[in-house]
Design a protein that fits this description.
globular; about 475 residues; alpha/beta; pyruvate-formate lyase- activating enzyme; five-stranded mixed sheet; nine-stranded mixed sheet; Double Stranded RNA Binding Domain; 3 domains; 18 strands
Length: about 475
């Protein structure tokens, strides 16, 4: 597709808007009109905005005047024109309207704080074209998020530790993770160096008088490594940080086929207060389709083991829109999970890596898939809320089926605090391990600075001295502020 922008520079947002309808199409952003099988012309003259879309030979137009001359209003108006053209061409209207950002609840909170909830709802529904249903989800989520965010102190932070290994790689996965079969020889050295980085990070945290509020060990699948290595990492965390005041310690146990009693005991004895068991679906045929080498029965066994070991705060993940999954089998999955009685359930929408080819008959298979996924997430929301399991955090990703969202639901008092802190960018995140990103937030302000670790385990190992050198950036950042 060619996106031809004339007399303006709103390239980024308009390209993201195109991806709502064409998530897998290569988009060329141009400042002149170049025709192609799909091309759009978005033109602004003073406050008059015009969009033209040629969609496989069919033509669509939309014209609007911007309410005022600010760049933001012009951007929203030209985006509305382009959105109108795509809706007419495809017959599909995303419930998120023009909103393409990762953190819609955060935006709603900011608008409600400055102008009140009624004004925020009005802006979402009438200016951003978000449906009343999704607007209400933002409102509900933002209330609980605000309660959690209030627990922060000026010098609090969360510690994130990355274990980027899995028993096998799922077909849909876009995270940096490596199967144990292929990368197993790296694990011993990786764990040793990870512990060094944890110790160095703890030393810096003490120097800057930073107090850990939550700890999150994620992946990958952290239990893909041995119980002994889990203990080694968690003991290093204990030795390096004062955990006496933390509110939550999560280990993402993850794949049921990697969970056993010895590893769960190691996690429990290491100090974790919360774990996540992630079946994604309880349909064995779908599990096979997505390359997960476990069964629904193993998920049930993993949950039983976790309860036996003494965990009383367990999250379970599932995904809407998985290949070959149907509304009925998704409904069955949710019903089984509710029977297992976890304290929280996170409902993800599938984020697809590869394209489904656009049909020359103007049929978009991903839109049909999105309609089914939308039924799934709506059923999940209504069913969970009816049982007192309420939304507490939300985020969005690009290229999700149906342009949908990911939502965490929890019983009251069992919300995942780290999830809110990372999504809201509430406070500093000190991160260790391959692909980990440290996010330094200005105390009492909104400015954020990032320090990136190398992405892959082999890079992490071979260039570890550079990672330790980069950690000095934490001291440099806090030297500008008084905590």
């Amino acid at each position: 597709m060619n996106l031809c922008n004339i007399n303006h520079s709103f390239n980024y947002e308009l390209e993201k808007l195109c991806r709502i309808f064409l998530p897998y199409e290569k988009i060329a952003v141009l400042n002149e009109i170049v025709e192609s099988e799909i091309y759009a012309v978005c033109k602004i003259e003073d406050c008059r905005c015009f969009a033209y879309l040629n969609f496989f030979g069919k033509e669509f137009e939309s014209k609007l005047s911007s309410p005022n001359t600010t760049d933001k209003e012009k951007e929203l108006t030209i985006a509305t024109c382009l959105f109108n053209c795509f809706v007419a061409a495809t017959g599909y209207k995303s419930e998120w309207g023009l909103l393409t950002g990762v953190r819609p609840a955060k935006l709603f909170s900011r608008l409600a704080k400055s102008g009140g909830k009624a004004a925020a709802k009005n802006y979402f529904e009438n200016r951003l074209l978000v449906s009343p249903y999704k607007t209400k989800l933002c409102e509900e989520t933002s209330v609980t998020e605000a309660e959690i965010i209030e627990k922060n102190s000026r010098n609090s932070f969360s510690l994130y530790i990355s274990i980027p290994f899995c028993p096998s790689r799922c077909s849909y996965c876009s995270f940096v993770s490596h199967s144990v079969d292929k990368a197993g020889k790296l694990i011993d050295e990786y764990v040793e160096l990870l512990c060094k980085e944890i110790r160095e990070t703890g030393k810096i945290a003490r120097q800057e008088n930073l107090k850990p509020q939550t700890v999150y060990i994620g992946g990958g699948t952290p239990v893909a490594i041995s119980a002994k290595q889990i203990t080694q990492i968690m003991n290093t965390v204990k030795e390096s940080f004062d955990l006496s005041g933390i509110s939550e310690y999560t280990v993402e146990a993850g794949r049921p086929d990697a969970i056993d009693k010895e590893k769960l005991m190691a996690i429990k004895q290491g100090g974790a207060t919360r774990i996540s068991v992630n079946p994604q679906t309880m349909n064995n045929n779908v599990l096979k389709e997505i390359g997960r080498n476990h069964t629904a029965e193993q998920t049930v066994e993993a949950m039983k083991l976790a309860r036996e070991v003494g965990f009383n705060n367990i999250n379970m993940d599932l995904i809407a829109g998985l290949p070959t999954d149907t509304f009925e089998s998704f409904k069955n999955t949710l019903d089984i999970l509710l029977g297992l009685d976890p304290e929280s359930i996170t409902v993800h929408s599938l984020s697809v890596k590869r394209a489904a080819n656009i049909s020359r008959e103007n049929e978009l298979p991903e839109i049909e898939t999105g309609k089914i996924a939308s039924q799934m997430v709506r059923y999940a929301k209504e069913t969970l809320e009816s049982k007192g399991i309420l939304p507490y955090y939300m985020y969005r990703q690009s290229k999700t089926v149906g342009n949908l969202e990911n939502v965490g639901y929890a019983k009251k008092g069992y919300e995942g605090l780290y999830n809110v802190y990372i999504m809201d960018e509430t406070h500093t995140i000190l991160a260790c391990g391959a692909s980990a990103v440290t996010k330094l937030r200005e105390p009492g302000g909104d400015y954020i600075e990032r320090i990136f670790n190398f992405k892959y385990p082999y890079e992490y190992i071979s260039r570890f001295s550079e990672i330790i050198e980069r950690k000095k950036g934490i001291n440099e950042f806090y030297s500008k502020y008084s905590i």
